[in-house]
Amino acid sequence: MQGKIGLEEHFAIEDTIEDSNGFLDPGIWPELKSRLLDVQGKRIGFMDQYEVEMMILSLNAPAIQAISDTARATEIAIKSNDILAEEVAKNPKRFQALAALPMQDPEAAALELQRCVKDLGFVGALVNGFSELEEENSAVYYDLKQYWPFWKVVEELDVPFYLHPRNPLPIDSRIYDGHPWLMGPTWAFAQETAVHALRLICSGLFDEYPKIQIILGHMGEGIPFNLWRIDNRNGWVKAPPTYPAKRLVADYIQENFHITTSGNFRTQTLIDTLLEVGADRILFSTDYPFEGVEDAALWFDDASISEADRLKIGRTNAQKLFKLD
After folding, report:
1. Which of 7, 103, 162, 238 could share a disulfide with 56, CB 3.0–4.6 Å?
2. Mean pLDDT estimate for the chain
3. What Rg do the C-alpha atoms of the chain give, in angstroms?
4. CB–CB of 145/135 below 8 Å?
5. CA separation for the pair 67, 128 (Å, rounded)
6. Exposed/middle/buried for residue 2 (C-beta within 10 Å: 0-12, 13-18, 19+)
7. 48: Cβ–Cβ under 8 A, 6 or more apart, which residues?
8. Whole-number Å distance between alpha carbons of 82 and 67
């Protein structure tokens, strides 16, 4: 399919590049590093070869969210956003940008998002899960009340917020002890991000700010396949939900969330997601350079879905969500 748009596509700056070291075999690191630091070279070659018209770029993980010093987190977020804005300005027909945000400080995060959208022309934000604060083993999640003024700004700016994975802190990773292969994209990424998304939903955030749009990658981090059970556990008891949100979780998933194909290139999984949330809320992505553009594109172009759905998922949903010309 020509004209595909990918929106979970990563880059790095020198200050954050080492955060991506160690996820793959050490022998792969030199190539992965070069792909992360490159924007205008090899990346465009892959895009041209596999008919990806545009990538919406975002900073690698965990990056800003792992900087426990709030002032430093704000400094590096601003720096990375300025660098990304310069790269996009070189080739705006091929690249757009998602802001990195210092969520350690909700007010600073709101100010930086406003700057990125209003002054730099960014089309949204991508945040790598929970943020660490000054104290040891501190992980803050964005359903907490101190973040609600930030979410008000997100709604007012009318831009999507991509909730991207990161690994849990070591103190919260004991379930993985002795099984390090379960960390990262194998399992821990999805578990961590799914719980964070469900916290946002069940907090009542979307009742207060119903226009917010959240993006989840990797076919929804497992949530679409568990929606029925989440909302219908022990159904014979007829007990109402005990969380603050006013409606069922599935209602919010279908109204406030979008799902990408990043790093999850399986047709059966795509079809199940289509059945759960519909073609209007699914978007093509590759997760480059952690995944190959070739793997994502060749799979998607040949997936057994209708051509109308392929066009929506591959292109027009992104154009609509991000207001792309």
Report:
1. 7
2. 97
3. 19
4. no
5. 12
6. exposed
7. none
8. 18
Candidates 207, 77, 71, 68; CA nearest to 130 is 68
What pLDDT is attached to residue 34?
A: 98
Alpha helices in 106-248 (DSSP H): 106-118, 148-157, 188-202, 205-208, 227-232
Tell me the C-alpha distance between 130 and 164, whole Å: 10
Q: CA angle 147-168-151, nearest 5°?
A: 15
Q: What is the pLDDT of residues 212-234, one digit of tens each?
A: 999 999 999 999 999 999 999 88
Return the active site residues: 287
Cα separation, 230 vs 217, in Å, equals 19
8 Å CB contact between 98 and 162: yes
Q: Where are the domains of the chain?
A: 4-322
3-state secondary structure of 93: coil
CATH superfamily of 4-322: Metal-dependent hydrolases (3.20.20.140)
Burial 25-35 (b: 16+ CB within 10 A, else e): eeeeeeebbeb
Is the per-residue pLDDT at 58 higher than 90?
A: yes
Tell me which residue of 140, 132, 98 sits closest to 117, measured CA to CA: 98
Distances (CA, A) of 24 to 21, 28, 31, 292: 7, 6, 11, 13
User: For residue 166, what are the contacts with CB-CB under 8 A and spacing of at least 6?
Assistant: 61, 62, 65, 66, 128, 129, 130, 189, 192
pLDDT above 80 for 169: yes
> Model's pTM, two decimal places?
0.97
The Cα 312–Cα 251 span in angstroms is 21
131 three-class SS? strand
Inter-axis angle of helices 249-256 and 267-277, nearest 10: 100
CA 15, 168, 110, 318 dihedral sign is: positive
Tell me the two tokens of residue 29: 């690191």
106-129 b/e (C-beta count within 10 Å ≥ 16 → b): bebbbbbbeebbeebebbbbbbbb
The pLDDT, as a whole number, for residue 137 is: 85
Whole-angstrom distance, CA of residue 159 vs CA of residue 42: 29
